[in-house]
C-alpha cells in the first residue's frame, strides 16, 4: 500500500496563521488539500491570507483568536465547528520567541511567554480535543522547538515553555489515542522567516548557528510544513506522542 500524504477535504484549524511560519503553513496545508480555519489576533491579516488561498482554489475562513484568552479559544473552536461541521486537525502554532539573558528576565516576560506558548497551547488542544473526542477522530500537532530538547543560551523561558510542550504532547497522546485522537509535536531548528531575518542576516550570528548545524544551513518554512503535513495526513496515522525534530542534526550532538 502506498502512503497517503493528501489532506484533501480535511478541516485544519491553524493558530498563529497571520505571519511567519504560520503564514507559510497555511499556504502549504491548503496546497495539500486542507480546508483552513485560520486563527490569529490580527483579523485583517488573516482576511488577506484567506483571500489568497481562495484565489488559488482553496477554502479558508479567518477567525480572530488571542490564545491568552480562554473565552476566545472556546468561541473560536465553536465557530470553526459550526462553519465547517468538524475539526479534523489542530495545528497549535501560535507562539512567542525570546533571546535574553536569564538574569534579565522579568516576571511579566515569563508570564507572557508561558501564557502563549504553554497555557494557550494546552487550552486550544483541550477545546479542539473535546470536539475530536466526540467525533472519534482527530490530529493535534503542537509547535515545539529544538530548544525544548536541549538547552540554548539566552533562551531560558522559551526553552522551559517548549520543554513543557513536549511533555504535554506525550501526556495528551497517552490519554486520547485510544479514542481516535493522536497528538504529536514538531520541533524545528532555526528557521529563516521575516521574524528571524534580522538575526540570521547577521554574519556573526549566523556563523554561530551554523557551527551547531551539521547539515550546514538553517531551515525553511517548507521544511516545517513537510513535517506538519506528514503528521496530519493518513501517512502519519501510526505516529503518536512523538516530538519530530526538524533540526538538521542540532540535537544529535
Automatic annotation (TrEMBL):
Q: Among its keywords, does the record have Oxidoreductase? A: yes
Residue intervals of the Ketoreductase domain: 10-194
Q: Which SMART domains match?
A: PKS_KR
Its Gene Ontology molecular function terms? oxidoreductase activity
Q: Which GO terms describe its biological process?
A: monocarboxylic acid metabolic process
Q: Provide this UniProt record's keywords sorted from A to Z.
A: Oxidoreductase
One Pfam family, short name please? Answer: adh_short_C2
Regarding protein family, the annotation reads: Belongs to the short-chain dehydrogenases/reductases (SDR) family.
Q: What protein is this chain from?
A: 3-oxoacyl-ACP reductase
Tell me the organism.
Levilinea saccharolytica
Instruction: Please spell out the taxonomic lineage of the organism that makes this protein.
Output: Bacteria, Bacillati, Chloroflexota, Anaerolineae, Anaerolineales
Amino acid at each position: 500500500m502506498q502512503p497517503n500524504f493528501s489532506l484533501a477535504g480535511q478541516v485544519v484549524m491553524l493558530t498563529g496563521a497571520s505571519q511567519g511560519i504560520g503564514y507559510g503553513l497555511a499556504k502549504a496545508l491548503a496546497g495539500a488539500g486542507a480546508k483552513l480555519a485560520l486563527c490569529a489576533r490580527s483579523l485583517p491579516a488573516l482576511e488577506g491570507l484567506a483571500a489568497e488561498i481562495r484565489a488559488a482554489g482553496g477554502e479558508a475562513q479567518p477567525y480572530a483568536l488571542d490564545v491568552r484568552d480562554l473565552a476566545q479559544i472556546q468561541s473560536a473552536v465553536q465557530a470553526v465547528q459550526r462553519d465547517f461541521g468538524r475539526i479534523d486537525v489542530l495545528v497549535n502554532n501560535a507562539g512567542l520567541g525570546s533571546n535574553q539573558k536569564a538574569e534579565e528576565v522579568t516576571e511579566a516576560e515569563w508570564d507572557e511567554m508561558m501564557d502563549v506558548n504553554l497555557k494557550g497551547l494546552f487550552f486550544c488542544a483541550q477545546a479542539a480535543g473535546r470536539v475530536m473526542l466526540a467525533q472519534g477522530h482527530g490530529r493535534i500537532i503542537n509547535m515545539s522547538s529544538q530548544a525544548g530538547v536541549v538547552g540554548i543560551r539566552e533562551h531560558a523561558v522559551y526553552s522551559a515553555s517548549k520543554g513543557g510542550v513536549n511533555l504535554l504532547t506525550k501526556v495528551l497522546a497517552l490519554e486520547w489515542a485510544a479514542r481516535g485522537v493522536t497528538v504529536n509535536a514538531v520541533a524545528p531548528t532555526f528557521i529563516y522567516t521575516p521574524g528571524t531575518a534580522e538575526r540570521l542576516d547577521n554574519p556573526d550570528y549566523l556563523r554561530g548557528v551554523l557551527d551547531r548545524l551539521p547539515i550546514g544551513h538553517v531551515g525553511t518554512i517548507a521544511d516545517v510544513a513537510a513535517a506538519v503535513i506528514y503528521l496530519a495526513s493518513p501517512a502519519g496515522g501510526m505516529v503518536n506522542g512523538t516530538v519530530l525534530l526538524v533540526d538538521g542534526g542540532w540535537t544529535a550532538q
